[in-house]
Write a structure and sequence with these properties.
With 239 residues, this protein is an alpha+beta fold. The protein is built from eight helices and 14 strands. It is globular and about 55 Å long.
Length: 239
């Protein structure tokens, strides 16, 4: 799996003078846990960079079930697509913790886009990577079983959101219910498939955490099922 630094953050790779101007033109916004940064259907007026906390993109079915399409971490950018096409927001952006964001207004975004070729280039690259990821996830949903999709999701999360305990064990701090929301499955179904992966020696369930015991097995058995290398966001470090 190819990990991509700053995959969801196209600000950090910009030249310093552009970053300074972005900061000058932005305002700080704080949101509490479970508060919406924006809602599906809202008219887009700003884009955001997450400075602290966390934000998820999600949608809801008519019966209230939640589907999570992305989990953003500090440094990540979101909401820029609506400033480009002017169409209403397609998802809800909800804070998963008390969070602080940098908000850039539409007019300032348009100025940067028109003034700095580097800004446009980095934005295009970030959007292409997100589209590539979306294509991969759509292919997984269309062609793989829940067990296979779960294994790939765990492998991807291990690369991007994994943490190390004091003994060096790699784990992800997501509940089975949260995984179900990402994969459009019930917690019971996720638990059943996790137990299959446990029997294969790939994972271990421990104290509300999912330990990834054998990334090599996950890679060899699941990553190349669709014939293309998978991608994942890479952050500063796995701690």
């Amino acid at each position: 799996m190819k990990t991509i630094p700053h995959m969801h953050d196209f600000f950090s790779d910009l030249p310093e003078p552009i970053q300074v101007e972005i900061e000058r033109r932005s305002r700080q916004r704080k949101v509490c846990k479970d508060e919406a940064v924006y809602r599906q259907g809202d008219t887009p007026h700003e884009m955001y960079q997450l400075l602290s906390g966390g934000v998820k993109l999600c949608n809801y079915t008519l019966d209230g079930r939640e589907f999570v399409s992305a989990e953003f971490r500090p440094g990540d950018c979101l909401g820029e697509m609506g400033l480009i096409d002017g169409l209403p927001r397609v998802s809800h952006a909800i804070a998963t913790a008390d969070s602080e964001l940098r908000a850039l207004r539409r007019e300032d975004f348009s100025h940067l886009l028109a003034t700095y070729p580097q800004f446009s280039q980095k934005l295009l690259l970030a959007l292409c990577r997100r589209l590539r990821l979306a294509y991969g996830l759509n292919a997984e949903a269309s062609g793989l079983s829940l067990q296979q999709r779960l294994a790939l999701q765990l492998y991807r999360l291990g690369q991007s959101h994994g943490k190390r305990d004091d003994n060096g064990g790699l784990y992800i701090g997501l509940s089975q219910e949260q995984l179900g929301r990402m994969l459009g499955a019930s917690r019971q179904s996720i638990n059943k498939e996790l137990r299959v992966l446990m029997a294969e020696g790939c994972v271990e369930l421990r104290y509300g955490k999912i330990y990834l015991k054998n990334l090599q097995t996950l890679c060899e058995q699941y990553e190349r099922m669709l014939g293309a290398e998978q991608i994942a966001a890479a952050y500063e470090s796995i701690t």
